[in-house]
Amino acid sequence: MLIRRKRGWEIPENRATPESVFLNRREILAAAGMGAIGLAAGSMVLPGLARAAEADPSAGLYPAARNPRYKIERDVTPEKINAHYNNFYEYSTDKELADAAQALKIRPWTIQFGGLVEKEKTVGIDDLLKAMKLEERLYRHRCVEAWSMTVPWTGFPLADLVAFAKPLSGAKYIQMETFLDPAMAPGQNQPFYPWPYVEGLTMAEATNELAFMVTGVYGKPLLKQMGAPIRLHTPWKYGFKSMKSIVKVSFVEERPVNFWQQLQSSEYGFWANVNPEVPHPRWSQASETVIGTNERVPTQLFNGYGEFVAGLYKGLESEALYM
Ligand SMILES: Nc1nc2c(c(=O)[nH]1)N[C@H]1C(S)=C(S)[C@@H](COP(=O)(O)O)O[C@H]1N2
Ligand SMILES: [Mo]
């Protein structure tokens, strides 16, 4: 029997009880010394009401209209599960890092545009949001660790950000960086890692319609543990390409060496396109665990997005496209 399950975020009641209410309750409890283990130290300084006033100034921009072009055949991963299963090494190497990530300070937040551009500039996140047209897209996310989720992102095409930055014709790659602030992100005190987190794409990839700058999720501003206030999502690539909490965007001639490549170039490369037939050196990529279910499903070439992106790799067959 086919039962169509109503997806969590389709239920409007969800929006009637925003998380801030829940968070405030926890903070009030914390301030009263009643537990809330693991809450970031900074969040206890302000009483609940002051923190509510500090609520994300972009909240009014959400939810944005969904773009129906990007179809999925899976259920959206429930927010409660997604919000507690994250990779964000700046905060922890554990998946449960939501509390730790609340130490991320997302205002003021600026993004610096540089390298091969007409004119270097630094732009505040709220000014950038004003300049962009937001839409919702349902995208599948496939981590190199062989798990996946389906996420209702809100944001704008990376192509629009490229147009905004006005790169010069000599630019071959876009390079992005996450913040560097060990006082705000304890993971950055681990000297073993090549901080800050860096990623890059070719200009053709960056201007492909799928490459998406994410500023919201589940019809609200992006959660801190998911890389607020702005992160990338490239759904045809392994998740590590989809870098979080971006502060710098540069246009360069040389191919960027990303964080994971710097750490272990025998296992992680520049292209990182999803391919079930090319195993990771230590595990198979043939299938993936769908987080929030007991299912294990076959992985698809380009994570199922071949119709959009396969053409990007014509003539590049000699490259390590799938690691
Ligand atoms: N700055 C930064 N970006 C990052 C990571 C990280 O550790 N730091 N992890 C990456 C990996 S491996 C994955 S799978 C995704 C996870 O995104 P999610 O937590 O929203 O699912 O973020 C990517 N972006
Ligand atoms: Mo990942």
Automatic annotation (TrEMBL):
InterPro entries noted in UniProt: MsrP, OxRdtase_Mopterin-bd_dom, OxRdtase_Mopterin-bd_sf, TAT_signal
The positions annotated for binding Mo-molybdopterin are 86, 89-90, 143, 178, 231, 242-244
Could you state what the record's PTM comment says about this protein? Answer: Predicted to be exported by the Tat system. The position of the signal peptide cleavage has not been experimentally proven.
Alphabetically ordered keywords of this record: Metal-binding, Molybdenum, Oxidoreductase, Signal
PROSITE patterns given for it? TAT
Gene3D superfamilies assigned to the protein according to its UniProt record, in alphabetical order: Oxidoreductase, molybdopterin-binding domain
Annotated EC = 1.8.5.-
Q: What class of enzyme is it?
A: oxidoreductase
- What's the catalysed reaction? L-methionyl-[protein] + a quinone + H2O = L-methionyl-(R)-S-oxide-[protein] + a quinol; L-methionyl-[protein] + a quinone + H2O = L-methionyl-(S)-S-oxide-[protein] + a quinol
Per the record, the domain of life is Bacteria
Cofactor(s) needed, names only, are:
Mo-molybdopterin
What is the stated purpose of this protein? Answer: Part of the MsrPQ system that repairs oxidized periplasmic proteins containing methionine sulfoxide residues (Met-O), using respiratory chain electrons. Thus protects these proteins from oxidative-stress damage caused by reactive species of oxygen and chlorine generated by the host defense mechanisms. MsrPQ is essential for the maintenance of envelope integrity under bleach stress, rescuing a wide series of structurally unrelated periplasmic proteins from methionine oxidation.
What interactions and quaternary structure are annotated?
Heterodimer of a catalytic subunit (MsrP) and a heme-binding subunit (MsrQ).
Q: Quote the protein name from its UniProt record.
A: Protein-methionine-sulfoxide reductase catalytic subunit MsrP
